[in-house]
Every structure is written in C-alpha cells, then in structure tokens.
Amino acid sequence: MRAQAAAALLLYSLSLGGCATSTTGSSPMDARAESPARPSTSAYPAVEDLPPKREKPAMTADERLKLQKELIGARDRQAPRAKAKAGAASPQPRSDNVHAAPPMPGG
Q: The whole model's pTM is what?
C-alpha cells in the first residue's frame, strides 16, 4: 500500500513538473514585468478624438437640394406600387378554405 502511495505521489509530482517553467532569474511576481508592453496606438480612435474639420463641405447646398428632390421623386414614384402590392398581399377570405374556423354561435 505504501509503495502504491509513493508511486502515485511520484507520478503526480512528475506530471506537475511538466507544467513548470524555468524560473532562472525571475519569479512569478515578475511575470507582468516580462510581458511585452501593450501598443500605445489602437486600430480605433479614442472616443474623445474627433476628426479634423473639413476644409470644404461634403455637399454644397445645390447638390443637397438636388439629391433631396431626387429622393422625394423616387419615393413618390414607388408609393403607388407599394400600395398596390400591399393590397394584393392582404389575405382574402376564401370559401374553399378547409382549415377555416367554424362560425361563432350567436354571431
């Protein structure tokens, strides 16, 4: 029994030894000091960093007005089609529907 306990203890200590690293010149407390420094720059700008002001606006007032008119025209052209599609898509009661609920009594 003692031999089995000693063998188990030996195997346990050997298995843990594989997890240990060389501690030459360092201690577990120095692990953070040895880790590489985090980069000071990020792929994303900080929240408070605003982009510089534009020298000229993205759109002139005329371009904006023209785009607004084009969008309103597109909306007005599509409105009748959308209403027609919505009317055709609404379910129509069918007399041959075998899964329809029976009429309510007294109704």
A: 0.35
